[in-house]
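Lab meeting, item 3. Inverse folding demo.
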């Protein structure tokens, strides 16, 4: 299950308590210091489903430091905790509003510092008090409430109405295995495929009113904010392809008008079910939009190869 947003409390480990203890032989204080609490880090993963784990727990905690021991032995430090978030995750402290983003593998962020351990009674001995009977408690670890918002980082995005063949194209172009069926909303979450190191995202179908929450809403439009090229899929079965195009563009504008600046190619899908003559009117309407148009069908190997070449070429608007 793909989870794209979650808010969770991160709590570093508390420091261990200092120890009150005396040597059995000479009664000198020998209580050790508590260990430091574990820190919390966020690291990158390529697993886009990694956020799901955070929905199964109430908070993320690092290990507490261990208490000090007799014989001047310091408590063991608490283990650090690393939480893996998918590349493309934007995480924000809900109080300070400080925001960071995971952009690549190897990214690592320090989130919360563990508390220091308390001092044992040995640390408090002095000339005026040779047998101190108190020790310091450990200090609390830092805690932060973090909101995480996943925005998939893809090179190419497929958008369009439901049932326009986006998932079938993704499967034909890459090794992806999306669920495919002849009814709307088969794709309930983005699918990713890789074509010669270029990541392609198949975005769940939009409908008119998506920006107002209809259908699947616009939750998944955030995943195309950073793509370098959009393929707008319109089926040859459409009764009014120009209207379909403008509806989707309007929903994009309502979500974030900057998306409209992303270079775009129109894919007239399922082109095998009509002749060129039968598609003449649709092509005439779409040409008015001043966008490149590619006819494509998963049953036409030449059209798939042409689409592959267009994806792999550097696109210039």
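The presenter then showed the designed sequence:
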């Amino acid at each position: 299950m793909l989870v794209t947003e979650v808010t969770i409390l991160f709590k570093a480990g508390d420091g261990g308590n200092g120890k009150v203890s005396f040597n059995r032989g000479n009664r000198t204080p020998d209580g050790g210091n508590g260990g430091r609490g574990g820190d919390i880090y966020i690291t990158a993963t390529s697993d886009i489903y990694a956020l799901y784990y955070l929905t199964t727990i109430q908070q993320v905690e690092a290990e507490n430091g261990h208490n000090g021991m007799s014989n001047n032995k310091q408590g063991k430090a608490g283990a650090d905790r690393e939480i893996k978030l998918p590349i493309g995750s934007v995480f924000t402290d809900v109080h300070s509003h400080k925001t960071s983003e995971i952009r690549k593998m190897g990214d690592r962020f320090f989130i919360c510092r563990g508390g220091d351990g308390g001092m044992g009674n040995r640390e408090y001995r002095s000339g005026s008090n040779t047998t101190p009977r108190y020790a310091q408690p450990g200090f609390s670890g830092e805690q932060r409430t973090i909101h995480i918002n996943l925005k998939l980082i893809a090179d190419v995005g497929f958008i369009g109405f439901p049932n326009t063949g986006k998932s079938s194209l993704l499967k034909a172009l890459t090794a992806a295995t999306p669920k495919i069926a002849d009814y709307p909303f088969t794709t309930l979450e983005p699918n990713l495929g890789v074509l010669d190191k270029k990541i392609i995202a198949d975005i769940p179908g939009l409908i008119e009113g998506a920006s107002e929450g209809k259908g699947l809403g616009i939750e998944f439009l955030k995943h195309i904010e950073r793509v370098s090229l959009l393929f707008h899929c319109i089926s040859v079965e459409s009764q009014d392809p120009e209207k379909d195009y403008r509806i989707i563009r309007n929903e994009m504008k309502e979500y974030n008008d900057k998306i409209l600046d992303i270079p775009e190619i129109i894919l007239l899908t399922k082109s095998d079910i009509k002749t060129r003559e039968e598609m003449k009117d649709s092509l005439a309407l779409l040409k008015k939009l001043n966008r490149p148009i590619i006819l494509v069908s998963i049953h036409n190997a030449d059209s798939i190869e042409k689409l592959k070449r267009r994806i792999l070429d550097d696109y210039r608007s």
